[in-house]
Amino acid sequence: MMIFDTSLAQELRTSPLSITASRYKDTYVKIVYSQPRKKGRDIFGKLVPYGEVWRTGANEATEITITGDILVNDQELKAGTYSIFTIPHEASWTVIFNADLGLWGSYNYNPKKDSLRIDVPVLVTNEVAEAFTIGIDPRNNEADFFFHWDKTKVVIP
Known about the structure:
With 157 residues, the chain is mainly beta. The chain contains 1 helix and 9 strands. The strands form 2 sheets. The protein has a 7-stranded antiparallel sheet, with no helix packed on it. It has a two-stranded antiparallel ribbon with strand order 4-5.
């Protein structure tokens, strides 16, 4: 058996691992992703091309685990673990919850395994996010989660 020191691997990553989570009653949501940095680069439409499937972060595909059925933009998403892919466009993004897990990037993305796809508008902010950030904004019995990088923010109700 090989023991791997994950703290060393984390130090070697230029895009460190991050986790965001929230709980409401019996439902727990956890999103695991890697955080690339802006580093003075033009992000959307350049580093992350418009109209192409993106892993929604860096390194491994972003994954979300949900312990209870939830509504995402008024559509049901069953409890389980999914990869999150996105297709950024200038004015809107397609957000994809896909049943294929353990993927590196979006290289082997298979649209036949999509569990849910939604389109959401892009918000342009004055605040520049240096690190790609996924957050959960809980409010009583509802929550939005969001992606924010550079001056681009996408909110998923």
